[in-house]
């Protein structure tokens, strides 16, 4: 009731309606950016349960979280989630579709090469250390 009174009262002050809308947008209780950031951080987590959590997050109702989860799955380099990621190539949001397509390309290349991203990084580090010696 108080909010309704404030909205009606602000209507009499010139340009105050824009400020009220901005205030409501800033204080909106939306946790999707936090969940998306968490998905990006979880990309580097070595626990195998994280892959399942990210695959579940790819089905989130918010497209920002979906895209972040798909990107994290691609970064993890586990080709076992390829079938799950392919589902999102027909999503209605462009960002989700394009992220899923990029993830499918990356995971398919890893699957064809038979090596995970971690194995490639270890090999590259070993090669660099050997060259320095």
Structural summary, described in words:
The chain has two domains: 1-30, no CATH class; 36-132, Leucine-rich Repeat Variant (Alpha Horseshoe), CATH 1.25.10.10. Helix content is 72%, strand content 0%. It starts with a helix and ends with a helix. It has helices at 2-10, 16-26, 32-42, 48-57, 63-76, 82-86, 94-113, 117-132. The longest helix has 20 residues, at 94-113. Helix 3 (32-42) runs parallel beside helix 5.
List the defining traits of the structure above.
133 residues; Leucine-rich Repeat Variant; 2 domains; 8 helices
Short structural description:
With 133 residues, this protein is mainly α.
What is the strand and helix layout of this fold?
Elements: H1 2-10, H2 16-26, H3 32-42, H4 48-57, H5 63-76, H6 82-86, H7 94-113, H8 117-132
Helix pairs in contact: 3-5, 4-5, 5-7
Tell me about the largest β-sheet: none
Question: Mind telling me the C-alpha Rg?
Answer: 22 Å
* Name of the CATH superfamily of the largest domain: Leucine-rich Repeat Variant
Shape: elongated
* Beta-strand content bin: under 5%
User: Mean pLDDT, nearest integer?
Assistant: 80
Identify low-pLDDT runs. Answer: none
Helix content: over 70%
Number of structural units classed as domains = 2
What fold name stands as the CATH topology of the largest domain? Leucine-rich Repeat Variant
Shape-level CATH architecture of the largest domain: Alpha Horseshoe
SSE string: HHHHHHHH
Number of helices: 8
N-to-C terminal Cα separation, in Å? Answer: 74 Å
What is the CATH C level class of the largest domain, in words? Mainly Alpha
Helix vs. strand class: mainly alpha
Q: How many DSSP-defined strands?
A: 0
